[in-house]
Design brief:
The protein has six helices and nine strands; from the N terminus they run βααββαβββαααβββ. By secondary structure, it is α+β, with helices and mostly antiparallel strands. The protein has a single domain, classed as Methylpurine-DNA glycosylase (MPG) (3-methyladenine DNA Glycosylase, Chain A), CATH 3.10.300.10. Strands 1, 2, 3, 4, 5, 6, 7, 8 and 9 form a nine-stranded antiparallel β-sheet that branches. The N and C termini lie far apart (49 Å). The protein binds a DNA duplex (13 and 13 nucleotides) through strand 4, strand 5 and helix 6.
Length: 212
DNA sequence: CGTTCGATGCACT
DNA sequence: GTGCATCGAACGT
């Protein structure tokens, strides 16, 4: 359908890649079916000097993909239960990546619901891919997808020519260090964000509430 | 409305 | 043995 982003797209400064990934479409064509969503929230992690980047303590077995060629997926498990997916950026040797934090579901909604059903009741569309752990669950992304080529056939990001969203930047979420860097980039006001951006809240939860 | 807290596995020291 | 780039249920106000 769209144009799959080539490795050269990722071989650039991480903040620029992060900005341009918002509005692109992440697709997982799995044996169980295809699921896809527009990227609405990302975070940049760049270099050993970034204290929140997994490369902050130098090269290890886990963070090895960060040092590898751009355009591969870096998937890891955190808190024992959640898979988080990144796109590796910058030229090979420079450890950096963009974390995908939220999607607006576009295709494969029933499949997403099935995959997320294990963790709860029937979810509204807005909750399916809200948060980095939730979206990997909905798309069926696990450690099996670590190091896969994001320009490949099964897991890829494509440009469908969707209108570029208005962007809003804020500090990264959940990090204990490096919170001063405003490296979280969101589609402003999008209802699928993991958390609203400061000063840019989504529509009110009770639009026309009559106060009891 | 807000905050706390338990689940759970992998890689690291 | 420790520490997470989280999630959501269970509380308290």
């Amino acid at each position: 359908m769209g144009a799959v982003l080539p490795p050269a797209f990722y071989a650039r400064p991480t903040l620029q890649v992060a900005r341009e990934l918002v509005g692109k479409v992440l697709v997982h064509a799995a044996p169980a079916g295809t699921a896809a969503g527009m990227i609405v929230e990302v975070e940049a992690y760049s270099g050993e000097s970034d204290p929140a980047c997994h490369a902050a303590t130098g090269f290890t077995r886990r963070n090895a993909p960060l040092y590898g060629p751009p355009g591969l997926a870096y998937v890891y498990v955190n808190y024992g239960l959640h898979h988080l997916v990144n796109a590796v950026t910058e030229p090979e040797g420079a450890p950096a990546a963009v974390l995908i934090r939220a999607l607006e579901p576009l295709a494969g909604l029933p499949l997403m619901r099935n995959r997320r059903a294990a963790a709860g009741r029937a979810l509204p569309a807005a909750a399916l891919c809200r948060g980095p752990g939730n979206l990997t669950s909905a798309l069926g992304i696990t450690l099996e997808q670590n190091r896969v080529d994001l320009s490949g056939e099964r897991l890829f990001i494509e440009d469908r020519g969707l209108p570029p969203p208005r962007l809003a930047w804020s500090p990264r979420i959940g990090v204990s260090v490096g919170a001063d860097r405003p490296w979280r980039c969101c589609a402003a006001g999008n209802p699928h964000l993991s958390k609203p951006v400061w000063g840019c809240a989504p529509s009110p939860r009770r639009p026309l509430a009559g106060t009891p």
